[in-house]
Specification:
Two copies of one chain form a homodimer. The first copy, chain A, is an all-alpha fold. Chain A has seven helices and two strands; from the N terminus they run αααααααββ. In chain A, strands 1-2 form a two-stranded antiparallel sheet. In chain A, helix 2 packs antiparallel against helix 3 (74-106) and helix 3 packs antiparallel against helix 7 (177-208). Chains A, B: It comes from Yanshouia hominis.
Chain lengths: 217, 217
């Protein structure tokens, strides 16, 4: 019985790692599409979104099956309930990579012309996503905590990008639409950073039993 | 055993209804704060966010307890797993009501001066949230489906508001910051509409066993 359970847990782990890899690739493609105006990559990030949704359902039903059949306790229960929550954040990262890509598909954007720091913001956010998933894979508490701290960097970059867009609008108001679209894209990155933070907080919980400083289980 | 389970399900139901009421009140307060510039109400919506977070944790642990202790099947299992997903969307609605309120607190905004339709958008979104929760409470499939359809109305109002903001920016570029902040607020409303749609889709699933047109379990 116990061996079967360990196998199922390992299979859950592998599914989560695959889902994480899909998210990393979606956000990397969306970002390359944005910065280089590459619509093929944008299309790929949009396609990845339904694969990520599918992966979410698989992990979800695996988690529910494990909860129902095995009645896990303590650390195992924490791991499964963390997985159930993490996939919601991963799925939103997929949504947002797809939202960014749809904007790249629908309008001509030259991000660097309007906000120099949008590339930095994108790279910082990708770093958070990659690290949050690595922290899960390696059960690396220190890395999870670095992700949580990195969220402030992304939040500050958002304010920088917003100021850059605003300054550009004052100089050239006729170019109104691109700055508005880029502001929305910057907001998507900021949200992706929030989701990576949530993932890192669930990693912390699954290791320590403490979630956002509060003892949960 | 069965009676105890029914009691627990009813208690879960009541907790979800309370959490839904908190969300409705948070978004209503945030909107009144925005449209009338009332910072007291904005403060109340921000406070409600932590109550909503607390409610999410309570419902979550109740759901996990029910799954573990009772091993429900069929309709009961659907109801509990739907609850587990719905609360994530409710919690995000609370976050976004709080995000809107924080913008009301930090800057002077006169929404009607920049985008006439932002009030309509807010009202349409509140309607979706209220209806999605009512659909859950009354197990009303037709109402859940109306919520899912209403999402297009909110999406179109977002585009209208964006055009209004853009037109205003071209006439008066010096007023750059307020339109950018209002665009972000409009985006929050659009996202709240997405979350209400998700809730309605889970209501549909808990009644029919079909999620977004796909048979899940």
């Amino acid at each position: 019985m116990r061996n079967r359970f360990d196998e199922q847990l390992e299979s859950l782990n592998n599914s989560l790692i695959r889902m994480g890899a899909l998210c990393e690739s979606a956000i990397a493609n969306a970002t390359k599409a944005l910065l280089e105006g590459d619509r093929t990559l944008a299309g790929r990030a949009i396609e990845a979104d339904s694969e990520i949704d599918q992966a979410e359902r698989e992990v979800e039903s695996l988690c529910l099956k494990l909860l129902l059949q095995q009645q896990p306790v303590a650390r195992d229960l924490r791991q499964i309930s963390s997985a159930l929550k993490m996939i919601t954040d991963m799925e939103r990262i997929g949504d947002q990579a797809s939202d960014i890509s749809e904007m790249v598909m629908s309008v001509e954007l030259d991000p660097a012309a309007h906000a120099i720091h949008i590339g930095d913001m994108a790279r910082a956010t990708i770093g958070m996503v990659t690290d949050s998933i690595d922290a899960y894979v390696r059960r690396d508490l220190a890395l999870a905590r670095r992700v949580i701290e990195a969220d402030d960097v992304v939040d500050n970059l958002f304010l920088t990008v917003k100021s850059e867009l605003l300054a550009g609008l004052k100089i050239n108001p006729a170019e109104g639409e691109a700055p508005l679209d880029l502001l929305m894209i910057a907001k998507y990155y900021e949200r992706i950073g929030d989701h990576a933070t949530n993932i890192a907080e669930w990693v912390e919980f699954s290791i320590t039993g403490v979630h956002k400083g509060e003892l949960l289980g």
